[in-house]
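Table S4 entry, C-terminal of Roc COR-B domain-containing protein.
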Amino acid sequence: MGCPKNEIRHPRPSKHLFLCFSTKFKLFQETENSINVNITKDSLSQFSQLLKVLATPKQSSLTNLEFHLVEWETQLVKHLRMLLENNPTVKRLTFRRNKFNAECLSELSNVLRKNKCIKEIVVSESGIGSEGAAILASALKDNQSLEDLQIWEDSIGSKGAEELSKMIEVNSTLKLLTIFDSKSITSTPLISAVLARNRSMEVHIWSLDHNGKISKMVEFAPENSTLRVYQLDISGACRVACSLGWNSTVRSLDMTGVKLKSRWAKEFRWVLEQNRTLKEVNLSKTCLKDKGVVYIAAGLFKNQRLEKLYLDGNWFGGIGVEHLLCPLSNFSALQNQANMVLKSVTLGGGGTKIGRDGVAAILQFLISNQSVTHFGIYDDESLKPDNIVKIFKSLERNSTLKCLSLQGCKGVKDEQVLQAIMTTLNVNPWIQDIDLARTPLQIAGKTQGIYQRLGQNEKTEPEIDLLKDMAMTAPKNCRVFLCGQQYAGKNTLCNSISQSFSPSKLPYLDQVRILVNPVEQAVRTPGMKIKTFKDDETKISIWNLAGQHEFYSLHDLMFPGHGSASCFFIISSLFRKPSNREQKNPSEIEEDLQYWLRFIVSNSRRAVTQCMLPSVTMVLTHYDKINQQSDSLEASANLIQRLRDKFQGFVEFYPTVFTVDARSSASVSKLSHHIRRRSRTILERVPRVYQVCNDLVQVLSDWRQQNRNKPAMKWKEFGELCQVKVPSLRIRSRHDNKDKVDMRRRAVATNLHNIGEVIYFDELGLLILDCEWFCGEVLSQLIRLDVRKQGSTEKNGFISRKELEKILIGSLQSNIPGMGSNLDADDLIKMMVKLELCCEQDPSDPNSPLLIPSILEQGRWRPQRWQVNSPDNNYVGRRLQCDDSSHMFLTPVKTVVFPQLQVHLHNKIMGLRNQHGASYSLEKYLISININGIYVRVELGGQLGYSIDVLACSTKSSTEMLRLFQHLIIPAIQNLCHGITLTEYILRSECVKNLTPPRFRRNQCVPLQQLKRALLSVPADSIYDYQHTWDSIIDSGSHILGPGFDFARDLLSDDDFREVLHGRYHDLYNLAMELQVPQEDNLDYRPSTASQEITSSVDPTFVGIAKGVEAVLQRLKIIEQEIRDIKQEIQGLRYYEHRLHERSGCTCYVNSREMHVVEDQIGCEIMQVDNITVKCLAPYMKKLMKLLTFALKIGAHLAAGMGEMIPDLGREVAHLIDSPLVYGAAGAAAAGAVGVAAAGNRNRSRNSRDIEQDHRAAQQWLVDFLRDQRCSTGKDIADKFGLWRVRYRDDGQIAWVCRRHMYARGFEIIEVPV
């Protein structure tokens, strides 16, 4: 398709326009969307005209412009600018083999600088050079639309590349950069700029290699964040490494085949330390040597992101391997693995010489690493079969590694290697793949069994309850606990027993006393000691519990667990100190023995189940110094017998008390024989244990010998040991339920703890294998740790964790052998928290300050006073004490429970600090709390600490303070006393107000329940006036506090008093039901106006109750005076024909209807009253009962509608006025219930219900009469009336009979205690 040269038509609309200078002028349409225009070189005017036509503003769909072989002039470029400005649809601009002069390039740069539509520019073989690249870069600095820039074979050089790199630093819209240049140096600045500025730009840079072939130099793909470097010189590689330091776009770096040196590795070390996004680095076949690998290894120490590192095919040796695996290994218990994120590592190659040092490093790495899952050694020729066997042997305890590759390793051959692989796979189910390609073993076709076993490890094994089917056996270890105070002779006795069990070549001479050097006594190391002996197949360990008071807090930890074979020997010296002749009195010996008996009973009660009573044997030492004829021995024997009777049923006493001279082997021989015999007996009685526990004892012993006699073991090490050495506790498949297997292992560890073979801290994941080292060295140092001298503590005993770590390292690790390699400072702090020797202020904060109660100051001897002193203050106090303090105590409060209470209350109060503004301060034996205006003091109750006192002062009511006790303080104390029931006592208010010292207020308390029972026993009108009387306090003849009294209503809270009232209402209701009194819901009953007025005027609150009861009591007093006046008138009357006897007697009535007056009985005085007097008193009694009814109804408002249950007693008294009972013989009242039943023939017409009512009324009259005469107990009745309380054998009825019938009818009755 052609057209005349002098005429140019508008081409048809197209998307692509190709303009090319050639020998002929052509214009043709190549495709539907493209037009190709060929213009001859002498037709520049037509080309200019064409550009003008294309630049005419109109609707156009032109998107791509491509110019071939165009020699640009300034005017043509201007026309191109007009074309681009008027055709915003043009997106792609291509110049192939064009020619530009400097002026044209400058004009073109102006075009590109302002254009906002073009997305892609391609410049190919146009010779722009470095200057053109610089001009183009300057334009693109301002361009914000271009996304794709391609420069092909235009020799931009290093200068042009530097200019383009500056453009990249500014331009953020460019998405694709493709450069092909003959000089490889151009790639370095470009890729460095892209990486340094974190551009998400796809980069492809090509160049010519040394052979003149086109090859890619660098490639960066942002879609997968991968940077591949194919060829770079060392300086370029270093520059690229520097740009990666703070880069965040590269995740994977592949430099395979690039020759690198230690200079580059030095720069790359900084990259590993600084970069936070690099996940994978491939440095295979990069010719790195030992020095370069050392730099990379140094970077791994600080790197926390890299997951894969490939270093195979390099030239480093054993030194490089050792340094490379160092940050991935753990060399001691105190060191943590430096790098925990690297998951995959490869090394090896023909040029790698691993050597002896490298093999040792690989073995240590495989044993201790906890992060690497893939490890590969490729094409190695230096490893021998023995080295391969060691490698697989080290994998037996590695539960982290999943894949091991030994491709091409020449040492993987022979049967010993195959056997080692199979053994490891039987033990280690976590290995998923072993790559043995191109190894001699694989070439020989011997790897089939290996892959078959790997397939079996993938299968799920059927679950079996291993512990359920595990063999049981009798225990072989019995623990003997020597309990006693200081200077009891436990150490000397233990040495003598040891000599009896295992005599040395220089035996103890019989009857020869080995005197302990006084200097040795002075420097004796305090603490718990453990000695172990063998008696045939029985292992006997003697645990010498420390007698110093500060060690009492650790005794609970040593107490034997459930079902443990153990016995207790309580040692007490007959003298106060071995250096003098001051003999103990019996009370001191009793105190020593009783303390340890209480300790044993208390800890036994804490156990969930108790299969047998604790076995206790008593031993008295220094027997040689005492006169055997003295009375003190007999007194001591008597007190021991009393203790036996007292604790019978709580412990099992051995009947013989041993009296020994601890320094004499002859004197101790009988005791040693008893220990042997007693241990065997106990081992036969205790429950059986798992056989695996006995097996593990030997396994643990072997492990200690192989690990330099390590005294402690981490839980991970224990799991690895079970996996390798104990098939019954082994994980057989990687799909097994790990939690169940771990639970079985923990059950076995707990069993080992209970039988005394180890000390197991479950929460800490720690097993103490050397109990003697731990108890005698570690715990002794912890309990005596003096933080105040070595560090700065904050107020209230707080110390920072870092400060405590420094103190523990300085104090313990330097003084205790083997401490540094077994327990670090963090373990010790966790242990102190577990034993509650300290607590964390904020458990959620790992750097929280620690509270150490033992460093608190002693403030008991300073003057004590309340923080507030106001006449409106109220004071309350409560004491919590064991309900059976003669047998148990709080184990003990002074050293265990009270420090734990400080810890628990601290955590609770800190949680309420923001809500109630609570404050908290501590002293040695005091906790001070201020919460919501209530000041609380929690104090230790006594020297040995059998109780805890809680005191409070506030202007608020006693009820509010006591509610705080019940909701906060008392539950915290009870939670610390598992298995022990605490009794609550009320402290004297005057002692609380004056803060009387605990030793003086020991007896100034009354049990809470006792006071409640006392209120229930008094008459109803006296319940508010009941007073509790306190004795005086006298010390050494001087009066500390005089006698006094407190109203019971003031000592009790509203809640407690309400409970008493409810009890009283309940009793009255039962009485009304027994009397069968009609209730108010009876339609015949109409309340009087007075009763309605009183009832309606009462406010149903405690204040209203108090006012109502006070008004009732005032009226009762008036009526009481009126009754006294009538009584005086009655006494003056002389005209009554019938009088009652001056004294009332009692008759004896038996089932055979024999009845007679009991002779020689004392009887009770009664008032001389007849029926007329009763009738005169009835109106007053009616009023009295009506008022009592109102008083009861006032209180009943609080009992949820219990007012309906209260009968109208006034109405019932009114019935008595007309009752035939009044007209009967007055003697019937004195005769009791029988006389009432026989009160005249005119009563025969009454129905049975009325008779039953009168019968019950008479019974109640008798009960009330006897109570008024202070004859309310069975013993009083027996004394006054000469009667015995008996039960009939046939029907079980209770009766009172005289002495004659007691003996005459002895075959029919049984005496019942009164």
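The CA atoms of residues 390 and 430 lie 18 Å apart.
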